[in-house]
Amino acid sequence: MTTSIDFITACINAIGSNYVLTSDTDKATYLIDQRQRVTGLAIAVVKPGNTEEVAAIIKLCNQYKVPVVPQGGNTGLVYGSVPDDSGNAIVLSLTRLNRIRTVDPVNQTMIVEAGCILQNAQEAAQAVNRLLPLSLAAEGSCTIGGNLATNAGGTAVLRYGNARELCLGLEVVTAQGEIVHGLRGLRKDNTGYDLRDLFIGAEGTLGVITAAVLKIFPQPKAQLTAMAALQTPDAALRLLTLAQNACGPTLTGFELMSDLCLQLVAKHMPHLAFPFEQHHPHYVLLELSDSESEAHASAMLEALLEQALEQDICQDAVLASSTAQSKMLWELRECISSAQAMEGKNIKHDVSLPISQIGEFISTTDALLQQHFPGCRNVTFGHLGDGNLHYNISPRVDQSSDDLLAQQDQINRVVHDSVTRFNGSISAEHGIGTLKREELLRYKSPIEIALMKSIKQALDPLNLMNPGKVI
């Protein structure tokens, strides 16, 4: 107890008493995950205001052997940003590191602190007629540090890549409290091991990301959205190939949704208009971002949809004729997770597959699940253009959510075994956290696990950085 009191006193001396939260009431919202399924304990929630204060806190954690759980917007889905129930860690909240340090439209980069909300960074880029293309449903609350820590993807990976590809440099506080100044903004820097890529996707287990250099791009002259109705995921793959051939790099979004997804949205969010006269088994949401003109983009998209209808790839299609209609189509896609949550608890799978194998994976795995768990409902949607599926399972209509969750391990086994047979990955953009830690051991090769443990030991020998997460 004396050691804890001494540690808390040292933290208060380092950053001020207002930013060291120790009461149960003040700590509560930082200790529970976004889906409110896991609640941890912590000595304190510590909220440094700059990189130097982060370093000072990490040095104190080394001195007193206190584990650290870095946290941004706490929007993660794999319990990676909440502490365990041992109560011996601190939550290191980075929300005060929220500045946009610089925006350089000529170098096409911006330097953003880890606690900056993604939407605020997007707006700062837009203010100088530039685009930060990282776009997620949680962009109004997730933070840049969390995006990088999980190597977030989102809806524009097809054109711009995921968070790792959008990052040119990092500022990081190491597990020993030293600051790595890597905010150089260079597109070419071949000077040894790429330390940046070690910290991206590491979920705070190797160090604390405090700021990043992000790529920004010229704003497109036009963004046009359409939705196509199809019979099968294989038809969606045919449409993807057709769109890539016809539109090239102007194709920036290609989202697959099953009919059940939109049925749930219609049920729980009736204000969102369904765009077709009748339901179809599957839908694709397409977006073109054109650097020439709206007329050029419109002609290209109309020609694509006409060709798809003529070849019987899709059965119907709608082209948004206004910004409001485009926003409505995207809302249908972005509200799927919320609608599924309103329907009840569910089992989420964030998987990636070779794009050419997605249709066969869905049909094969759907059949396996119905064989073993008759009546379960597949809420299948995702970023088809980059191979990332959110392959979620809701309970059958006469089953409680708790009964479904009691079968989670068995359902995960069916899905993840199938993912592996198709040479896929059990985590595409959500990370590993604690939720998938044991699954990672099952599906990663022993040599890969051994190398990961070697890196962890080398960078964090005291195992203080987000212990128990990932490996």
From TrEMBL:
The keyword Flavoprotein applies. InterPro entries: FAD-bd_oxidored_4_C (IPR004113), FAD-bd_PCMH (IPR016166), FAD-bd_PCMH-like_sf (IPR036318), FAD-bd_PCMH_sub1 (IPR016167), FAD-bd_PCMH_sub2 (IPR016169), FAD-linked_Oxase-like_C (IPR016164), FAD-oxidored/transferase_4 (IPR051264), Oxid_FAD_bind_N (IPR006094). Residues 38-219 form the FAD-binding PCMH-type domain. The keyword Flavoprotein applies. Pfam families: FAD-oxidase_C (PF02913), FAD_binding_4 (PF01565). One of its GO terms (biological process) is respiratory electron transport chain. GO terms for molecular function: catalytic activity; FAD binding. It comes from the Bacteria. Belongs to the FAD-binding oxidoreductase/transferase type 4 family. This is FAD-binding protein. Its cofactor is FAD. Keywords: FAD, Flavoprotein. Gene3D superfamilies: 3.30.465.10, 3.30.70.2190, 3.30.70.2740, Uridine Diphospho-n-acetylenolpyruvylglucosamine Reductase, domain 2, Vanillyl-alcohol Oxidase, Chain A, domain 4.
